[in-house]
Amino acid sequence: MGVLRHPPGEPVSGRPPSSDTSPPPHLIKFRAAVDDLLTEVVGSAGPSGVQRAEAVLGRRLYDAEFRTVLTQTPEGMSSVVESLTREVRDYRPNDRSAAIDLTALIRIFLLSQIDAVWWGRTKAYALDADMLRADELVELEPLRRRGALKIRYRTQSEQLWTRGVRAAMRRLAPDRTPRTVGLRYARTRPEVIALAHSLATDFTRLAPAGTPELWVNSLTRSVDYQLHLRSLGYSAVLPSAHCVGYAVDIEMAWFARFGARPVLEELLLERRDSGAVNVIDEGQAWHVCINPAATADLRRAFDREFSA
Question: Looking at the chain, which runs of residues are DSSP E strands?
Answer without folding.
Answer: 138-139, 151-152, 187-188, 214-218, 247-251, 277-282, 285-290
